[in-house]
């Protein structure tokens, strides 16, 4: 069975960083093949992995609205195009959602997308969705059931409250979440006791468990600045050891 892991959290809290580190983790553990979905309109997961993006699903949706080649039905066309949009790497594929539809919904295209995702998903052990703050893409792709929701937060009282609100809205959105984890990112070390209290409160008062505390890392900052792929981080890097322990626990 394919497991779906979705990121959630306010902008800038570390969803894409976590997705890139999870990619590295799954590759190292040979938990392949998996699919990465960059569901952020301002897609940048590919940059952390040093991959070039070709056509995005947003562009495909636009093409679907126009004239199609003769003798091709819309669902055949969508399926063909989605395969073209898949960036195939060793062990994983990347699919970039791109810009949303704009005003109004081209619902037929979303339906084709959902159908194609259904067919595609069987090929993978995991599907990782790097979301933007809203989680509309999950329903658009017909991902109503999520195995692991990872909610990232900055290390502040208000950040943690926002993470809790994000966790709380999953129910009204009609998403079935099997496991929910709070990840506190860029945490100062040692962790202030007052912050630990806020974390404990949020966890006690929500469906989230504490997934882990990720320290602020100069290694990550330098890796990003140098433009080198996060896949090339060293096994011995502190941040890698910490993150791997967190994923060991979450995915066990
Ligand atoms: N643990 C960390 N230590 C240092 N910098 C981090 C850490 N996590 C994220 N960052 C940096 O913070 C910025 C925002 O992170 P990002 O993962 O892009 O957030 P999001 O995808 O939630 O918008 C990026 O520049 C990233 O390099
Ligand atoms: Mg991001």
Describe this structure in a few short sentences.
This protein is an alpha/beta fold and 252 residues long.
Walk me through this protein's architecture.
38% of the residues are buried. It is globular, with a radius of gyration of 18 Å. The protein contains 10 helices and 8 strands. It has one domain (3-251): Rossmann fold. The chain is 43% helix and 21% strand. The chain has helices at residues 15-28, 45-49, 57-65, 74-85, 107-121, 136-140, 157-169, 193-204, 218-226, 238-251, and strands at 3-8, 34-39, 87-88, 92-96, 126-131, 145-153, 176-187, 209-215. It has 252 residues and is α/β, with parallel strands linked by helices. An 8-stranded mixed β-sheet has the order 3-4-2-5-1-6-7-8, sandwiched between helices. The site of adenosine-5'-diphosphate has 17 residues, from helix 1, strand 7 and helix 9.
What descriptive keywords fit this protein?
8 strands; Rossmann fold; 252 residues; alpha/beta; eight-stranded mixed beta sheet; globular; 21% strand; 43% helix
Layout of helices and strands:
Elements: E1 3-8, H1 15-28, E2 34-39, H2 45-49, H3 57-65, H4 74-85, E3 87-88, E4 92-96, H5 107-121, E5 126-131, H6 136-140, E6 145-153, H7 157-169, E7 176-187, H8 193-204, E8 209-215, H9 218-226, H10 238-251
Parallel strand pairs: 1-5, 1-6, 2-4, 2-5, 6-7, 7-8
Antiparallel strand pairs: 3-4
Helix pairs in contact: 1-10, 3-4, 4-5, 7-8
The structure holds adenosine-5'-diphosphate and magnesium ion.
